[in-house]
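ASSEMBLY PREDICTION REQUEST
Request ID: AP-0331
Submitted by: J.K., bench scientist
Number of chains: two
Total residues: 868
Priority: normal
Notes: Please return the full assembly, not individual chains.
Input sequences:
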Amino acid sequence: MKNLKTYSYILFAGMVGLASCKPNLVSKSAVSAGSLDLTRYIAVGNSLTAGYADGGLYREGQLNSYPAIIAKQMQSVGGGAFNQPLFTEAQANGSGYLRLTGFNQTTGAPITAPVTTGLAVTGQTTVPTGPLTSTTVTTYTKYTGDINNFGVPGIKLVHATIASYGNLNGFYERLLPGAILSHNTAYLDFVTAKPFTFFTNWLGNNDALNFATTGGVDALTDKATFTAAYTNVIAKLTATGAKGAVATIPDVTTIPFLNTVTPAAILAAAKAANSQVQAIYVSGLVSGTNYQPRVATNQDLIVLTFPTSLIGSTTAGAGTYPYGLHPLNPIENKYVLDAAEVSLAKDYVVSYNASIKAAAAAKGLAVFDANTFLTNLKAKGLVINGVSLNANFISGGIFSLDGVHLTQRGYAIVANEFISAINAQYNSSIPTADVSSFPSVKFP
Amino acid sequence: MYVCTPTQTRCKPIILIMRKLLFTLLASVPAMAFSQGFQVNLHGQKQIGMGHTGTGLLQDGASVLFNPGAVAMLPENYVQAGVSPLLFKSAFSPTGSNTQYDVANKIATPFTAYGVWGPKGSNFKFGLGVYTPFGGLTDWGNTWTGKYTLTSLDLKAIFFQPTISYKLTDRVSIGGGFVYNHASVVLKRAIPLASSTGADGEAELNGKGHGFGWNAGVFVKASEKFTVGVNYRSQVTTKVKNGDAIFKVPASVQANFPQPNTFTASLPLPSTTSIGIGYYPHKDWTIAVDASFVNWAVYKSLDFDYANNTATLQDTHSPRNYKNGSVYRVGAEYKASTKWALRAGGGYASTPVQDGYVTPEAPDANRLIFTGGLGYKATKNLNIDASFMYEDVLSRTQTNIETNLAGTFKTNVFIPGISLSYHW
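STATUS: Completed
Returned structure:
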């Protein structure tokens, strides 16, 4: 039996030794930046680039912005430091954002609540926009450090060269030295002030998105204006020899913000409340700026933020007649991207993307075709590492609680799409990020 | 957000039917793959040392498993037991990434126990075998990239096999046994529903089941120098009934995963047909070859039936479409002295898992097998045998058709082992 004891000791020691004999699948030479110089990567863009999510810009979203994810992956192949204009930990909730608090017990509809503590809001400033007009700008605690992520929520492509834009956008204002109303540095000049070796540019979404989310109230950027502005931005970004990647503009009509509340659902609920209800009326675009009331169809997209409680009210909208249920009091234009406006938005986005691809091709830049990606996601869904994702609100996993911006998982997927496009264009092999480690919508 | 106040009489809540929108999409309900990786061929230290050959040999009580037909020919009675601690070192690297994920160091303990007895001078011998021909212990942890396909699996199947063997002539014997299988499985997987802290949900399937089968064989002493054995171990379809299906998800979505819940699943542990030859060129030498065919093609799909279904928690039907597998083995034993025996062997096993179906439960591929062993005759009646097996499961790069988990798997398996046999 002494033998047995000896054997068991040998066996135990052997197992411990064997435990270190793991397979080795990763070799250092497998990843490389190729010919790219990733010393200083800057990210140019809007809210998507800033890491905006759940209807706000907040620290956790910033930390998981797609440029931050790309930069982290680049660091394994020689990428430099990547600084973001983070809100402080004390003001981690930044602009405030929406939180999911539960689901309505009877309808199953999600219930959200704004986060109102730990904000970085410093005040409201009235800024003149013309001789007789003004706008109110919310300002935030300034950020003064070095910046690599220049994502500014709300910025349109056509804003990039407006010198006074810093006075009109609180998210840009907080990056600039000096006080609001005194700013005169155009965004494009600001981001290119310091030398950089690589860039991503995802400007242009808001030139179409704002039109869509306001039900066609905000104007689409003129096609030719967009082309000229985009070419100008790319010329400036590549002027010193930097390489880069750009992304196309998604079909803004595919987002859950416009596909969750449907005319059919509103009609069904209205009928359930009053069996005499025949139809839902919307204010539909006829041509130019001529809107006429008509019966809503499933081609009309209702915004996610539409207060459905207005339906049937005789004081809402034009009043007198039940709101949304009568041609003399249709659902207002601002809540509906009607079928004609949908066509318009699609048509403009096609034109914008042709301009983006042409400008990128002229400079040999990588292109992440976000439009194709989102269209495929909407049509077919996507399975990554055993998780089914799609373009649905909340359940889809990609879109955050505002129905427009992405979840952390969504941004990680975007980062990997950018990386794939960069690798394909520049023969680099920047490793992709682990999508599984980024959460989707958080549930209480 | 969309709810009316009770005072607005014309307005009833707009039903967005969010619950139906929710999670009709989750591919996250656990499903399990059985593969060659789950067939554990560690059935006797003497045999393991010789490349796990033994269908055509008369080594010891392990013939109860290797070939019940040979039991009646065994020269003595046996009581023996062995254990083969198994270290399954699997790694995964996603396509396009520079990250490697490794399974945790966990040691599975396949074991064997055999008894063989026959009245002196009788043509009959009776046997009992308790062994673990299927199992798996894989723990990838809950932070790896494939956590939504699997975090851990602990599968155990213990077979009990009473056996009878009869010597027809001095050259030919037959035997057969009835098999009862007691199986247990604990399978865990992350659910992609994040809590307020960002932590994933978790699914755990925890069940026990049983199944029946049989094992029969023929053994022939063809000549002084040759012995031949043929063995058939039947399919053992093991049904796990009313196992616990535990889903931990954030409270607001728990209704999608009703608790408590149970599941039922059927696991077809496939039949194995083996032929083995023993060759004795010299009194101190034994050479053995075995060939086995494993009928994995019965494994077409894996289905889970939940007692409480919801729109989210549907019964699952996962295609597996295995093809048959085969294993070729060769081994040798040299009796260095009256006390010591040296053994060595090797083999090659082809995977039944087709491209696109490899899963992290037991990431399967063709494998090379190398073995060595040492036998020591401590007393006239007591043998101590030690064995070592190394399995080189070849690296395999593919994208799973169900989960899109894409990357390269590589597995090394290290299995030392020891047994004691008392014979008289």
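REVIEWER COMMENTS: The radius of gyration of chain B is 25 Å.
SIGN-OFF: pending second reviewer
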